[in-house]
Amino acid sequence: MKISVIGCGYLGAVHAASLASFGHQVIGVDHDERKIEHLSRGFAPFFEAGLEPLLKAGLEQGRLSFSTDFAALAEAELHFICVGTPQSKTTQEADLSSLLSVVEGLHPYLRPGTLVVGKSTVPVGTAAAIAEAIAGTGAVLAWNPEFLRQGSAVADSLQPDRLVYGIPKGIGAGRSQHLLDQVYAPILAAGVPRLVTDLATAELTKVAANAFLALKLSYINAVGELCEATGADVTELARALGLDERIGAKYLAAGAGFGGGCLPKDIRSFRAQAAKHGIEPLEELMSLIDGINADARYRIAEAASQLCSGTLAGKKIAILGAAFKPNTDDIRDSPALDVALQLAQQGAEVVVTDPQAVNQAWLQYPQLRFETQLDAALQGAELVVLMTEWQEYRQLQPAAVASLVARPVLLDGRNALDAASWRAAGWRYRGIGVGSADQLTADIS
Ligand SMILES: NC(=O)C1=CN([C@@H]2O[C@H](COP(=O)(O)OP(=O)(O)OC[C@H]3O[C@@H](n4cnc5c(N)ncnc54)[C@H](O)[C@@H]3O)[C@@H](O)[C@H]2O)C=CC1
Ligand SMILES: O=C(O)[C@H]1O[C@H](OP(=O)(O)OP(=O)(O)OC[C@H]2O[C@@H](n3ccc(=O)[nH]c3=O)[C@H](O)[C@@H]2O)[C@H](O)[C@@H](O)[C@@H]1O
């Protein structure tokens, strides 16, 4: 099938390459020339494991191409829209300007039989409005939200947990479903569940899923605060909770909380949608989740201050991690950089390092100091704060790190390291949501 993918960012680039691997003829379109230039040469414009081989295979087999020109998608019978829907700069709502401009740009290429499929995350009602806007062309709209995670985007895209098709009832519904089934034939053949809903349900399924993950994370962080105050251990508690199949073990890692280009903006958009429709309990719940998440970052900054005898001024602090989570170079709403800024604003001499995200982070936060080399960042540190649990940080040898720092004091913002072995090597170790007499009086002089 001839398919276009409009918007080749973290979602669209992976989606385009995955569709090409299914045997479709795919054209990726984006207005960002640098991105298209990279993608056209088989290079991922961002760090995502497994994407480059998929891109290169698609390009070599002649199934994948990229362009900045909408005219290049004229031949496609199906268009996926994957542009960003970030939080508005002035409100909690999603900014739909890119989406609407793409719909306008697509208009001349729409004809009877064309299927337009939204993948971007949108407020409920957006799809119905777009369906109406394109109805005159004879093209039909469906909404097919995406659930992939950055860092495992290729695997999530090729083997998703489920497919959701939002398809309006009426003329063309059967054909829309049939076309989407053709697009995803290899996934369906593998037995992945496919749910067909109306447009509103598909839109809401996506944001409700992200909000549920955010809820779980803020819940465990709020419980972690009580653990810390009472001498309990949130990591042991989470392990015990997770063994209950009704709860499940995932998204229960307490610590710095959630960041990224999706969860934070989606709970805010969900909050705005609830407010618009007068659903106060949902509005309040989203507000609470957001507040707990902000507190999680603040609590780390506070713990850092305690570990530096209550004053951060002039203290050399090494922050391990800049990306919002491991295995990505994405720094959108990164807890690591938020904490780094808080510490720097209180006078600390902060040095941030990350295996992949230093360049992006430096461009956005020129006021912070960055080191690409871990050893250089650790050199002379009076406090080490782990903020993004990259595998290479998980594997650090406490004794080797101790030989670089000025004082062996570690704040593990992700509860990712083995406290016992760090303590055994002479480190003062502090986790998050893990109370103990040692930690409650963890000041150093
Ligand atoms: N990042 C992720 O893991 C996932 C993202 N989503 C949703 O997918 C959407 C896209 O997210 P990301 O890929 O993270 O954003 P992104 O910012 O990485 O990518 C968006 C792309 O759209 C392009 N674009 C914007 N306006 C355009 C226009 N008028 N014409 C052509 N290209 C245009 C941008 O240049 C950019 O490359 C959002 O709604 C997000 O919530 C959904 C699931 C996963
Ligand atoms: O809509 C989206 O874009 C995507 O948003 C999230 O994916 P992603 O933002 O890539 O990252 P996650 O792996 O969900 O992690 C989000 C944040 O939660 C944090 N987290 C995650 C798990 C955990 O136990 N503890 C925790 O603090 C991570 O560090 C990260 O900052 C969802 O997991 C995807 O299903 C969804 O498609």
Question: What is the element layout, followed by pairings?
Answer:
Blueprint (H helix, E strand, L loop, with lengths): L1 E5 L5 H10 L3 E5 L3 H8 L10 H10 L3 E4 L10 E4 L15 H10 L8 E4 L7 H9 L5 E4 L9 H6 L4 E4 L6 H11 L1 H5 L4 E4 L1 H32 L3 H9 L20 H14 L3 H28 L8 E5 L14 H11 L3 E5 L4 H7 L4 E3 L2 H5 L4 E4 L4 H4 L3 H5 L6 E4 L6 H6 L3 E3 L6 H4 L5
Helix pairs in contact: 1-3, 9-11, 9-12, 11-12, 12-13
The site of uridine-5'-diphosphate-glucuronic acid has 21 residues, from α9.
Pathway: Nucleotide-sugar biosynthesis; UDP-alpha-D-glucuronate biosynthesis; UDP-alpha-D-glucuronate from UDP-alpha-D-glucose: step 1/1
Pfam families: UDPG_MGDP_dh, UDPG_MGDP_dh_C, UDPG_MGDP_dh_N
GO biological process, one term: polysaccharide biosynthetic process
Throw out a few tags for this protein.
single chain; 445 residues; Rossmann fold; 14 strands; binds 1,4-dihydronicotinamide adenine dinucleotide; binds uridine-5'-diphosphate-glucuronic acid
- Alpha-carbon distance between the termini? 67 Å
The 3D shape can be described as globular
Percent helix among the residues?
Answer: 40-55%
Mean pLDDT: 96
Biggest β-sheet description = 6 strands, parallel
Strand order of the largest sheet: 3-2-1-4-5-6
Please indicate the percent range of residues in DSSP E strands (runs of 2 or more).
5-15%
State the low-pLDDT regions, or none: 440-445
Q: Any ligands, ions or cofactors bound here, and which?
A: 1,4-dihydronicotinamide adenine dinucleotide, uridine-5'-diphosphate-glucuronic acid
Per DSSP E runs of 2 or more residues, the count of β-strands stands at: 14
CATH architecture of the largest domain: 3-Layer(aba) Sandwich
Count up the helices: 19
Q: In the CATH hierarchy, what is the superfamily of the largest domain? A: NAD(P)-binding Rossmann-like Domain
Given helix and strand content, the structural type is: alpha/beta
| Count of separate structural domains | 2
Pathway: Nucleotide-sugar biosynthesis; UDP-alpha-D-glucuronate biosynthesis; UDP-alpha-D-glucuronate from UDP-alpha-D-glucose: step 1/1
Pfam families: UDPG_MGDP_dh, UDPG_MGDP_dh_C, UDPG_MGDP_dh_N
EC number: 1.1.1.22
Binding site for NAD(+): 30, 35, 85, 121, 265, 332
